[in-house]
Amino acid sequence: MESADTTIFNRQTLLVGQDTMNAIHLKRVIIFGVGGVGSWCTESLIRSGIIHLTIVDPDIVNITNINRQLQATVKTLGQPKVEVLRQRLLDINPDADITALQQTYSSSNAYMFHLDDYDYIIDAIDSVQDKVQLILDSTASSAKLFSSMGAALKMDPAKIRITEFWSVKGCPLARAIRKNFKKTGLYPRKKFQCVYSPELLSNNPDFDNREICPGKSHINGTIAHIPAIFGLTLASLVLTQ
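Above: the chain's sequence. Below: its structure in token form.
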């Protein structure tokens, strides 16, 4: 097989040049959370020439993931999200070095991930507690962090924005994270950019969300294009560096 550098990336090389492509190939990226936002981010990174990628997510594919998550189909139900996604990414670029970890990032296992080994860290975690821990650890590392705020209860792509974390407005997830920082007195060591939207819709009151994901107390509605755009935007932040 011919080198991927002279085949699948030639249209991008035509746009950005070979020196830039060589730099992209060398970068190491780790992404936490490969659901609606993270799955689209990973595919964009691989299609754009990132070769060294680690994907981290503890979940298996659920039928409610199909409306917005790249690797979720009726054929992949019950399979680990990271394993299904890894195979898809290798089908795009068999030369890629992709590590799939079916794990949750938390304070108890943070040491295992060696964040300083990466150039970029992508945060697409839903859990506030784990997200806070990742932000604190990432901003204390030598890597550059990009973070996704909440992508649920939104429909208007024109309202999606990029800004520094402390400038995010109108996002309940960002508000919860800030509240946690203030409560614990622990703050990020450096600034980081976020993808977010100030739009905030409501769940349809005629549909009982308790039946969607048994065991979860509350679920917010999502639509395919919003988390996908969040993910693609995160990938663009890596590439435009």
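The chain has a mean pLDDT of 94.
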